[in-house]
């Protein structure tokens, strides 16, 4: 399927450094997110993936450097304006008990509504589209706490889609999901990029999952970029050894032709 042309919206980081107290997390980060593509941020725990995602979404302010949207610093954008342009779904979001899918998705319209504005036809249409895209329309009246893990994650993504932003940032959207639900979420992400021209950035732990689905990969270690580019450029034995200290062999996925990382045992098998 041919993807739509890029929208021209660009998200980037220039010489960004972020520290929590005296602990540096990210340093000297220069990162350009390709528009109309799915970018996966990968790396070991503590490499700064989630911190970078939060900075791109305006939730964490850099100590130095600048996050840019269309060439302008996001620090100068009002909160609602930022939320109309960039949607962020944090890891493990929580909702009040008894909240239904419809209630949750409607919250995604907050950035578009005046303080005392009435619910509009545009708001309703945006929510219906989000429910349809995530295949959640049939579950609209169900409480979130009655859904499976994959269904709940799709409901949260539907809320983010109701914001109608061109850019979506997802922090570990498949963590704690079983394999079938992981596949659901990853296929939804690729569908949104392919059919809607969304720019999506996701933090992922599964290297092979990232290589199979992402158009662009960014490999991080200790808050710095070790490699970026296509899966073939990033998923090399040398890069895996450098970042994860794991010996591996790389083969081609027989279904997709993308790189498949096979870690080698640290100790040779006993004869």
TrEMBL record:
Q: Does the keyword Cell membrane apply?
A: yes
Q: Where in the cell is it found?
A: Cell membrane
- Cross-referenced Pfam families, in alphabetical order? ABC_tran (PF00005)
Which CDD domains does the record match to this protein?
Answer: ABC_Iron-Siderophores_B12_Hemin
Q: Where are the transmembrane segments?
A: none
List the molecular function annotations (GO) for this entry.
Answer: ATP binding; ATP hydrolysis activity
Q: How does it sit in the membrane?
A: Peripheral membrane protein
- Database matches in InterPro entries: AAA+_ATPase, ABC_transporter-like_ATP-bd, ABC_transporter-like_CS, P-loop_NTPase, Siderophore_ABC-ATPase
Which cellular component terms (GO) are annotated to the entry?
plasma membrane
Which intervals of the chain form a coiled coil? Answer: none
**Keywords assigned:** ATP-binding, Cell membrane, Ion transport, Iron, Iron transport, Membrane, Nucleotide-binding, Transport
Q: Where is the ABC transporter domain?
A: 11-247
**Entries under SUPFAM superfamilies matching the protein:** P-loop containing nucleoside triphosphate hydrolases
**Primary location class:** membrane
Q: Name one GO biological process term.
A: iron ion transport
Family the entry assigns: Belongs to the ABC transporter superfamily.
Name this polypeptide is given: Iron-enterobactin transporter ATP-binding protein
What organism does the UniProt record list as the source?
A: Azorhizobium oxalatiphilum
Q: Which lineage ranks, top first, belong to the organism behind this chain?
A: Bacteria, Pseudomonadati, Pseudomonadota, Alphaproteobacteria, Hyphomicrobiales
